[in-house]
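Q: I'm writing a short methods note and want an example of a predicted protein-small molecule complex. Could you take the sequence and the SMILES for magnesium ion and return the bound structure as tokens? Please keep the output block clean; save any remarks for afterwards.
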Amino acid sequence: MKKKQAPLPQIVTTSYLPDQLPPMRGATALFLGRSNAGKSTLLNAIFKKDLARVSKFPGKTRSVNFYRWGPKLTLVDVPGYGFAQRSREERDSWQILMERFFDLLPEGALCLLLMDCKRDLEDEEVGLIEALWDRGLNVELLLTKADHLNQSDREARKRALDRQCAASKPENPLTWRFVSAKTGEGIDALRRHLLHYGKEIPISAPNHDSLRP
Ligand SMILES: Nc1nc2c(ncn2[C@@H]2O[C@H](COP(=O)(O)OP(=O)(O)OP(=O)(O)O)[C@@H](O)[C@H]2O)c(=O)[nH]1
Ligand SMILES: [Mg+2]
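A: Understood, no commentary inside the block.
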């Protein structure tokens, strides 16, 4: 039997300014996190295609980039925060762009917060997670660059992350998973998770009306 092909991804909109942000509807998954966490690289690994620009220097992605993936699902590459070399003005414009972006997010949007697997959840991440929860959004953690961990580091990180995630919301602990765009660890499972999420959103919630290229 012929294997069902994953839909072809396509970039549909790039927004540098709040006024350029499109209205969003339907299944929308965001890739958020500190600069250099590996958001654009992970998107490319999921898509099996180099659509998003990547750099070894933080601050590569400066616009909010919308990718359509099949008829119902949109994935969004969000510019990273915490990039120390940015000027005050650039940080302020990032903040304004992000606030507008979060205001426009549709109900049920899935926020994937990426963090280098060697980092702990810091105040910045905790503040962001709480702000997203306050908006009723779902948050999941992705621990990137898992290829950097040896077996014993990995066990130590697992224990630390389980502890931190359980403490962040005892009644509904944050979920997390290791991923590596380099070795492919966790990528197939994440791809399936996203495609499944895309199918869960009711057909009655139209998507992409306003995301025409
Ligand atoms: N070893 C390893 N390196 C990775 C992995 N994912 C990303 N990188 C590297 O991390 C660096 C930053 O990756 P990006 O994908 O540009 O990070 P980003 O989060 O999009 O960064 P901004 O656009 O600045 O927000 C690049 O040098 C990537 O090659 C991974 O899984 N393993
Ligand atoms: Mg990027």
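A: Remarks, as requested: The two ends are 35 Å apart (CA to CA). The mean pLDDT is 88.
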